[in-house]
Write a structure and sequence with these properties.
mainly alpha; 9 helices; globular
Length: 277
């Protein structure tokens, strides 16, 4: 970004009211609480009556992934100038997108707390703590918003990842056209919408570290190290589950209790699934 553009971003930053961001985060928590209530009222498929919370939590995550995907992709298309300065770029559209993601992670953490899943889902709790703290910090200082948009682009993959798991839970045949389509789209979007954001953010950590505080730099370095390692593991598991076992291989039952919230651990960059394999 050239110097002539910097005042525009400065004025835009100052034009965004922090109070509005907090209200939007609160509104997002209420929104997903209502979605949760609607899904709970409708109830899961009869075959999943003993997995009611898992189904409901995953379904809400699926809804979030869809909303975030549309919002993030729209931001990248209509606000493509953000890529010229990921550090300083900001406008209301991208800012509230990050507020939306922050609110969802807070909501999901509360859902885990209310349903006594904190210890059982400790890795998800740690992920949410890391991601929410980074996003909330960015929302409060109204900076690094474009970086957060890049991180949130993993939700494009999360949408298909969650869809894949929902199909598994209702025992959709693994050789059905729908399942095969979602399976392969999931693999492609994993590579594109997880691999690329991870690379961009990891690279930026080393090239733009001097632009943030020491505490923030240490935090983002730790988060990205965890996310990079986890996503390599997750991708390998997906390859083994969906490709290396051949067309007749179906996910083993013991793998069905693996990683719910797998799209989230991505600094954002993993997901949101207690069991996606």
């Amino acid at each position: 970004m050239n110097n002539g553009d910097e005042p525009d971003y400065t004025r835009m930053r100052e034009a965004i009211e922090l109070t509005h961001g907090h209200i939007f985060i609160l509104g997002t928590i209420v929104f997903f609480s209502i979605i949760n209530w609607i899904i709970k009222t409708k109830g899961p498929p009869k075959s999943l009556s003993d997995e009611e919370w898992k189904w409901r939590n995953l379904y809400v995550s699926w809804v979030h992934a869809f909303c975030s995907s549309v919002w993030v992709l729209s931001s990248m298309i209509f606000c493509s100038e953000m890529f010229s300065d990921l550090f300083h770029y900001i406008n209301h559209f991208t800012y509230f997108c990050v507020c939306f993601g922050t609110g969802y992670f807070i909501y999901d953490s509360l859902d885990l707390l209310v349903n006594n899943r904190l210890l059982q889902m400790w890795e998800v709790v740690l992920h949410h703590l890391a991601v929410t703290s980074m996003f909330y910090y960015n929302v409060n200082i109204r900076a690094q918003i474009a970086f957060s948009i890049v991180a949130l682009s993993v939700e494009v993959n999360s949408f298909f990842l969650h869809w894949r798991k929902l199909l598994q839970m209702v025992k959709t045949p693994f050789d059905s056209p729908l399942y095969l389509t979602i399976k392969y789209i999931n693999l492609v979007t994993f590579a594109v919408f997880r691999g690329v954001p991870l690379y961009v953010i990891t690279y930026s950590v080393f090239t733009m570290g001097h632009m943030v505080t020491t505490a923030y730099y240490i935090g983002i370095c730790l988060s990205m190290f965890v996310m990079d390692v986890l996503n390599v593991i997750l991708f390998w598991r997906l390859l083994k589950s969906d490709l290396l076992r051949g067309p007749s291989g179906s996910p083993r039952s013991k793998q069905h209790s693996a990683l719910h919230h797998e799209s989230k651990t991505n600094g954002h960059v993993t997901s949101n699934n207690h069991s996606d394999f």
